[in-house]
UniProtKB/TrEMBL annotation:
Swiss-Prot/TrEMBL GO biological process terms: cyclic threonylcarbamoyladenosine biosynthetic process
Keyword Cell membrane applies: no
Descriptive protein name: Sulfur carrier protein ThiS adenylyltransferase ThiF
Pfam family, one: ThiS-like
Molecular-function annotations in GO: nucleotidyltransferase activity; tRNA threonylcarbamoyladenosine dehydratase; ubiquitin-like modifier activating enzyme activity
Length: 269
């Protein structure tokens, strides 16, 4: 029968997952098995067209093997669309850095990171940076972090402040943009500028994610065509209500998931 092993079509006479694994790997205890998108240790009867990935623990896979593993986890049709997508992220603080990491783990083909700032100690309570990144430009630090997650993702950076004058040019090649600024006036500037100058662009914005109020109050809303808003719309950062990792991460997860849905052609929340 014909099956796929680590993304490549193979013909096999073995009818069970156990026998196939034993044939390919004499020592199977060091092998993780993904069968049609699910990790399993069970013996399963193989069928025509099954997709199987064998992962050797502690070994860096090649680009082809890593892509096959991502495809096995995400299903082929999802992975193909994600791999061909490009997303711009405006602002690499708590939201933007977390969105970038989530999309990198999803296997996004091209991430475009835009920020002018450096990593400083107060960022470490909620942003996807480490002590070793202190003093680095956020664009460069995050690019380095993404390389450690998936070195085969294309990452382009612009270390520059986004303004009304340069926003349309900066994001001219991005069909989807994540707005991840801290201040309301910058959020409004980016949204208004891009929607006015790039009518077909899709924007995923955020508002209301400070403090430690209920996670359930954070939602994703379609404001109007091509603009989506994540958050509770009211919990702004202020004295007595700071920005904290759990709620920031929840909102970033909403943004990343909405971006993924848009990549897959799902426009409803």
């Amino acid at each position: 029968m014909n099956i796929y092993i680590n993304g490549k079509s193979r013909t096999t006479e073995y009818c069970s997952l156990y026998l196939l694994r034993k044939k390919l790997f004499l020592e199977a205890s060091n092998i993780i098995t993904i069968y049609n998108g699910f990790q399993t240790e069970n013996d399963i009867e193989l069928k025509e067209g099954d997709s199987i990935s064998f992962i050797e623990k502690g070994v860096m896979p090649s680009e082809d093997e890593l892509e096959a593993l991502m495809m096995a986890r995400h299903t082929p049709f999802v992975h193909e669309k994600v791999k061909s997508a490009r997303v711009g992220i405006a602002g690499l603080g708590g939201l933007g850095s977390s969105v970038a990491v989530a999309l990198a783990r999803t296997g996004i083909g091209h991430l475009h990171l835009v920020d002018f700032d450096i990593v400083e100690p107060s960022n470490l309570n909620r942003q996807a940076y480490k002590i070793s990144h202190l003093g680095m430009k956020k664009t460069e630090a995050l690019k380095s972090e993404i390389k450690d997650i998936n070195p085969y993702i294309k990452v382009s950076i612009d270390t520059i402040k986004v303004t009304e004058e340069n926003a349309a040019i900066l994001f001219e090649n991005d069909s989807i943009v994540c707005e991840a600024f801290d201040k309301a006036e910058y959020k409004a500037m980016l949204i208004n500028t891009l929607l006015e100058n790039k009518p077909g662009i899709k924007l995923v914005s955020a508002s209301g994610l400070a403090g430690y109020e209920s996670s359930n109050s954070i939602t994703t809303t379609k404001v109007f065509n091509n603009l989506y808003l994540c958050g509770d719309r009211k919990s702004n950062a202020e004295p007595g209500r700071g920005l904290m990792a759990p709620r920031v991460s929840i909102c970033a997860g909403h943004q990343a998931n909405m971006i993924l849905r848009l990549i897959l052609g799902v426009k409803e929340v």
